[in-house]
Design brief:
NUDIX_hydrolase-like_dom_sf, single chain, alpha+beta, 2 helices, Nudix_hydrolase6-like, Nucleoside diphosphate-linked moiety X motif 6, 100 residues
């Protein structure tokens, strides 16, 4: 879980970044069209290696892949500072270190 109240943030509001390690009953996504333009499932391995995402999303995808392969007890908790989409601002992400 990551929560931020520093502004500017996405849409000028506070934001939260939540990761839930759950399995879906269905892969159908029923979403609110007033709040979202689209929703889709991503392949975790593809998400981890794409350059088309933010640094925090890329790191979380790599952590989840490592947890799936080696146990989630190996990825929780240390702090890493990553650049935000806003110049000069940073996120703090808490996890265990990935092996070099």
């Amino acid at each position: 879980i990551r929560q931020q109240h520093r502004h500017p943030g996405a849409f000028g509001m506070s934001d939260m970044y939540l990761i839930c390690r759950l399995s879906p009953f269905s892969y159908h996504i029923d979403f609110c069209t007033q709040e979202c333009l689209r929703c889709e499932w991503f392949d975790l391995a593809e998400l981890a290696k794409t350059g088309e995402t933010t640094p925090i999303t890329s790191r979380v995808a790599k952590l989840l892949l490592y947890g799936l392969e080696n146990g989630f007890h190996n990825i929780d908790l240390t702090m890493e500072q990553l650049p935000a989409v806003y110049t000069g601002l940073f996120y703090q992400l808490y996890h265990r270190r990935l092996p070099e």
